[in-house]
Design goal:
Blueprint lengths: L2 E5 L6 H14 L4 E5 L13 H8 L3 E5 L4 E5 L9 H5 L7 E5 L8 E5 L15 E6 L9 E3 L3 H12 L2
Parallel strand pairs: 1-5, 1-6, 2-5, 6-7, 7-8
Antiparallel strand pairs: 3-4
Helix pairs in contact: 1-4
């Protein structure tokens, strides 16, 4: 499976870049799935809905299906958080999986960087970051793209993964 990540500190522009990359790459005829890591408790379900009631009652998994989509929610309860590698096995085959977050994992990544956040670049200390997408001039020993030049960043990623 071809995977490529987008990483960076909070408010660096990761999600916007991911959204633009998905649109750009699928617009070129490739199939793309995404994995997003959340550091906080999140819920895709809504209190009061039947699926939420099933989960709260103790179901390990709840599969919600309609004519438009289906979603499988798996409660970890006392289980460890699954690794990115384990989660990737849950996805149907696609041309490319774009991963947001998982900055400590070893897959190749583009770092999103906004100077206004005041955070340092991650790239100088992390060889898995193959390029930087920045809103200002940065000095690193790898390619630097304008954060908004989605086409060039997509070209770079597609070359990197052999598509």
């Amino acid at each position: 499976m071809r995977i490529y990540g987008v990483t960076g500190w909070k408010n660096a522009g990761k999600t916007g870049l991911m959204e633009r990359l998905v649109a750009e790459i699928t617009g070129r005829g490739f199939s793309v799935s995404t994995v997003k890591h959340a550091h906080h408790t999140f819920d895709v379900d809504q209190p009061g809905k039947d699926s939420h009631r099933h989960r709260v009652a103790g179901a390990s998994e709840v599969l919600l299906a309609s004519g438009n989509r289906w979603a499988l929610m798996h409660e970890l309860r006392d289980e460890e958080e699954p690794t990115l590698e384990a989660l990737l096995t849950q996805l149907a085959p696609v041309d490319l999986v774009l991963v947001e977050g998982y900055k400590r994992d070893r897959h190749p990544k583009v770092e999103a960087f906004r100077a206004e956040t005041g955070n340092p670049l991650i790239a100088p200390e992390d060889a898995t970051i193959r390029a930087v997408a920045a809103d200002s001039a940065v000095k690193v020993d790898r390619p630097v793209f304008d954060l908004n030049d989605t086409g060039a960043i997509a070209d770079f990623i597609l070359r990197e993964v052999g598509l």
